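Hi, here's the filled form for the chain we discussed.

Project: internal
Contact: R.S.
Residues: 77
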Amino acid sequence: MAEITKSLRLVFKNQAGTNYTLTLDNPRDDITGAEIEAVMDRIIAANVIFTSGGDLVSKNDVKIIDRTVNDLYDPAQ
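And the returned structure, exactly as it came back:
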């Protein structure tokens, strides 16, 4: 049986210039790019996430990822 899941991957740049990825499960089907960008801007402005490379300073990428998992074998219980 196949299990289908979605996740929203938000990628930011931090002060060191490295990526920080925040992944959220089960995003709304009708979410828009504008809504996502607005939330990312709020996260950066609120300075609520601190990484080993410093504060988040900019948006870098956004992806919605669809994943299908096909379970081919389960051991006998």
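Let me know if anything looks off before we file it.
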